[in-house]
């Protein structure tokens, strides 16, 4: 028995750095004017863990992080779980009341917080009874004045800590991270992940990203700039993937499109991940044409919402290579990538866009994906019959934290229910057609809003679009389109109707799918805390509009 125990090899987060440290990778981590290699990174990670231990952090302690994408945040991604504590990546875009709720619910005992968020923390501190210590962070290099007891400044904490701190040996099933879903209904729900889950997610995702077309493939020599916030679902696993590969990693801090474009050019960025709204923000920037040489080397993986064809074509016109992916907060997150199969390897760039790159994709290694009807029967693989995506895999959350009833609903039938409606074709590609809660049922027939939104944004004047169900006495619901226009562009309701009716003539949509009503806004559509279009306020405002019969 002793020999068996000695041979057991725990899949813990520290193992992700082994190869990078063994070969002493000199690739840099870059944030603002700060840059250092992976050897220095690991020394700083050890110092951070040592300093937190001196403050009182122990195995099982929950430590919150409230920050933008900085080198300090990336250090926390390793130091906190590697010392046996749990890192709570706090969603900084939540309303203060919800942000405070997540910290109370997670029972955060310590918090690492950026100076600009201290006023919010001061208001919430009294309600977070579990809080024992605060570490402040600032780009200025100066410690901010704070009213909290047991407070340390991050730079001082590291300066007084042990650079050779020895991390404890942990069981791979030790909890490593917790965060809260950004759902648009009700209070946020907590999901948590173990070391084993995050290591396997890292390996599965890296294998998946390496299996794309050469023009889209993530390679060890790529320069990576994550553009999914560190607080959101592990930034889709990027902090751990770059550690595994020892890649040059550029951190953008706040997502300003002008700064992003400049970083791509100056630092030689070749791969990023993002939601469609961030890509759109970059594509419409007035200076984007000046960066075509740098953008021609840029590979982009898009998730968190459907990648509209028109947006992908605009990106390709600038030389950007785009592909879609899919996952959930509950799944750590990556489930599928729009990778080629044997039958799609030889397609042209334009053919591959529709046949592969815009689809939700095929499962990455170790993930099982089904599309099922309400009785959990698999729908035909005909690319037409819609059902719900259900999944299994080694890195899916086991529960909603402290919410047994919602956990039972999530895992009914032994499969995790995504709430996404999709079709599956004969090659196994999944294509999402809607969120179950967003789909419109008109006269007993489903109308997929994602398809309508993709067609709407093909109009040259439309910047973004959302389709919701409007109450209708005859049909129950009818589609209502809410659009915002590009700067210095114009379009009327009749223009949009003719645009959509054109797709009926082309056979791209059914006639009864054409929206009966259009709302044209001058401002951008509302967004969730993770940058997705938020339909909840649109429904509240427009769903009761009377549709003329």
Ends distance: 77 Å
Largest sheet: 7 strands, mixed
**Share of β-strand residues:** 15-25%
Number of helices: 18
Catalogue the unreliable spans.
none
Query: Within the CATH hierarchy, at the fold level, what is the topology of the domain at 10-192?
Result: Rossmann fold
On the 0 to 100 scale, the average pLDDT is 94
CATH top-level class of the domain at 10-192:
Alpha Beta
CATH superfamily of the domain at 10-192: ANL, N-terminal domain
Helix content: 25-40%
Shape: globular
Give the class from helix and strand content and strand pairing.
alpha/beta
Task: Give the strand order of the largest sheet, numbering strands 1, 2, ... along the chain.
Answer: 7-6-5-3-4-8-9
Care to give the gist of this entry?
The chain is α/β, with parallel strands linked by helices and 549 residues long. The chain is 30% helix and 22% strand.
Note the topology.
Layout lengths: L1 H6 L10 H5 L5 E4 L2 E4 H18 L6 E5 L4 H12 L3 E4 L6 H11 L3 E5 L3 H7 L8 E5 L13 E3 H6 L15 E6 L9 E5 H15 L28 H8 L3 E3 L5 H11 L3 E4 L1 H8 L8 H4 L3 E4 L6 H9 L3 E7 L6 E4 L11 H9 L4 E2 L4 E5 L14 E6 L11 H7 L5 E9 L5 E6 L4 E3 L2 E3 L1 H8 L5 E11 L3 E10 L7 H13 L11 E5 L14 H7 L7
Parallel strand pairs: 1-10, 3-4, 3-5, 4-8, 5-6, 6-7, 11-12, 12-13, 23-24
Antiparallel strand pairs: 1-2, 8-9, 13-14, 14-15, 16-17, 17-18, 18-19, 20-21, 22-23
């Amino acid at each position: 028995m002793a020999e068996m125990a000695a041979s057991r090899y725990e899949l813990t987060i520290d193992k992700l750095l082994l190869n990078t440290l063994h070969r002493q990778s000199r690739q840099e981590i870059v944030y603002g004017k700060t840059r250092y290699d992976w050897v220095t990174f690991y020394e700083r990670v050890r110092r951070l863990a040592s300093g937190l231990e001196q403050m009182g952090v122990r195995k099982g302690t929950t430590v919150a992080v409230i920050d933008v994408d900085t080198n300090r945040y990336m250090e926390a991604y390793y130091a906190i779980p590697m010392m046996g504590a749990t890192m709570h990546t706090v969603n900084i875009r939540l309303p203060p009341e919800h942000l405070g709720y997540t910290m109370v619910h997670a029972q955060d005992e310590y918090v690492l917080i950026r100076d600009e968020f201290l006023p919010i923390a001061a208001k919430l501190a009294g309600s977070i009874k579990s809080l024992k210590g605060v570490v402040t962070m600032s780009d200025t290099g100066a410690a901010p004045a704070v009213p909290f007891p047991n407070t340390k400044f991050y730079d001082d904490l590291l300066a007084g800590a042990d650079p050779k701190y020895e991390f404890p040996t942990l069981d791979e099933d030790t909890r490593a991270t917790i965060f809260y879903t950004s759902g648009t209904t009700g209070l946020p729900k907590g999901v948590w992940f173990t070391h084993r889950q995050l290591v396997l997610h890292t390996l599965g995702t890296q294998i998946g990203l390496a299996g794309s077309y050469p023009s889209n493939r993530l390679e060890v020599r790529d320069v990576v700039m994550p553009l999914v916030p560190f607080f959101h679902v592990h930034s889709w696993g990027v902090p751990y993937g770059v550690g595994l590969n020892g890649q040059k990693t550029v951190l953008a801090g706040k997502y300003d499109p002008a700064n992003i474009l400049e970083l791509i050019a100056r630092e030689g960025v070749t791969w990023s991940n993002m939601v469609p709204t961030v890509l759109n923000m970059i594509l419409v920037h007035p200076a984007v044409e000046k960066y075509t040489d740098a953008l021609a080397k840029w590979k982009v993986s898009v998730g968190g919402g459907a990648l509209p064809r028109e947006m992908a074509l605009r990106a390709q016109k600038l030389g950007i290579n785009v592909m879609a992916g899919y996952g959930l907060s509950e799944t750590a997150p990556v489930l599928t990538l729009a990778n080629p199969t044997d039958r799609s390897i030889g397609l042209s760039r334009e053919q591959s866009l529709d046949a592969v790159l815009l689809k939700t994709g095929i499962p990455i290694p170790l993930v099982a994906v089904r599309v099922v009807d309400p009785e959990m029967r698999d729908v035909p693989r005909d690319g037409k019959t819609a059902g719900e995506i259900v999944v299994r895999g080694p890195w899916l959350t086991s529960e909603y934290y402290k919410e047994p009833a919602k956990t039972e609903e999530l895992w009914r039938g032994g499969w995790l229910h995504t709430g996404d409606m999709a079709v599956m074709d004969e090659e196994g590609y999944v294509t999402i057609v809607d969120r179950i809660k967003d789909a419109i049922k008109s006269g007993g027939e489903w109308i997929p809003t994602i398809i309508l939104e993709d067609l709407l944004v093909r109009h040259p004047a439309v910047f973004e679009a959302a389709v919701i169900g409007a109450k209708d006495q005859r049909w129950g619901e009818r589609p209502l389109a809410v659009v915002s226009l590009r700067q210095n562009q114009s379009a009327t309701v009749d223009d949009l109707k003719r645009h959509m009716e054109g797709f009926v003539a082309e056979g791209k949509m059914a006639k009864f799918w054409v929206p009966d009503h259009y709302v044209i806004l001058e401002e951008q559509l509302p967004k969730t805390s993770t940058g997705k279009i938020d339909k909840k306020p649109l429904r509240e405002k427009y769903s009761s509009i009377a549709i003329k019969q």
